[in-house]
Amino acid sequence: MEIYLKDLSNQIKKAQSIASGVKLPGTFVKRPAKVLFCGMGGSAISGDILGTIAQSRSRIHWTVNRTARLPQWVDSKTIVILSSYSGNTHEVESIFQQAVARKAHFLLVASGGRLAEEAFRRKIPFLRLPQGYPPRFAIGYGTFALLFLFIRHRWFSVTAQEIREVVRLTARYPRDRAKTLAKRLFQKNIVVYGGGLMQPVALRWRTQFAENAKTLVSCEALPEMFHHEVEGWIFPRFKVNRSVAIFLADKNEPGWLGKKKKVAMRAIRKHGAEVIEIKASGSGVLGRIFSMVMLGDWTSCELANLYKIDPMAICVIDQIKKAVRSV
Q1: Which of 54, 114, 168, 289 could form a disulfide with 58 if both were Cys (CB 3.0 to 4.6 A apart)?
Q2: pLDDT tens-digit series, residues 15-48
Q3: For residues 92 and 324, what is the distance between their CA atoms, to the nearest angstrom?
Q4: Contacts of 88 (CB under 8 A, 6+ apart)
Q5: What are the sequence ranges of the domains in the chain?
Q6: Mind listing the pLDDT tens digit for each residue in 96-129?
Q7: How many CB atoms sit inside 10 A of residue 19's CB?
């Protein structure tokens, strides 16, 4: 597992060459108004991160679709990104068949599989990712290959300085910090909160703790949780007393959010739960996001070690996939 944890910085550097090898056809939309990013599990989180970045760095309306159904608004001015590391994800294949009839513009992100075969047959632009990774640990390839492609076509605005920073930050492994945090989370009910740049990171933490540490974690967005969930930190008392609330903080969060967060944190502590606030490292958008992604990934694996389970095993997920293949 550690070989994948240490590979993020390397993936970011290699993603540029993956993007540079993709040439969009002359008929491809020049100024896309919308992006529909379709994926599941580890192949979908890149869409959440890019969509968050797009809010301040792009004019494109970005939507992540985690279903097998194509929205009605997809049209000839839409880029449909099909993200499936294996190239065989049932839901993404279903979306592909529906989108062909809408004459949408496609981008495929995969390492092979049936979708890759369709891409070659239909001459669809294809970002081919290296094989041999668990999909959840190919996040550097999946995110940055697309990001570099979008930067090249001036659909996203990201500086070279921000790229250099995220490469540097992800080359520093947070092993000690992750070990310490995992010990605080061992045998606890975990809830993760994040807003703005930290909202997709909170989702990443939830999914990584589930797959790697076999631990149920809930997450909610800030400031959304101030309007309902904060009142739920009372019952059942046995659960609250065994809970940890993690607040992922970004240095650029507005002052009003910080004030509301302090009130919420104080209330949660009052009812018996532990509260941890973790602040992102880095100055650029990419650095702040991926320093926290990396900490969550490492912590989930350290927690798996404490539970003495294999973070690589995904037995139930494999059973579910086989159930569809056998139909």
Answers
A1: 54
A2: 999 999 999 999 999 999 999 999 999 999 999 9
A3: 14
A4: 113, 114, 115
A5: 2-158, 176-307
A6: 999 888 888 999 999 999 999 999 999 999 999 9
A7: 17
Residue 136: partners with Cβ closer than 8 Å, 6 or more residues away: 41, 42, 45, 207, 208, 211, 212
Cα 171 to Cα 5, 164, 165, 205, distances in angstroms: 10, 11, 10, 19
- CATH class name, domain 2-158: alpha beta
Query: Higher-confidence residue: 75 or 217?
Result: 217
Mean local confidence (pLDDT), 200-211: 98
State residue 99's pLDDT score.
Answer: 87
Angle, in degrees to the nearest 10, between helices 285-307 and 160-169: 20
CB atoms within 10 A of CB 270: 10
Cβ-contact 159, 283 below 8 angstroms: no
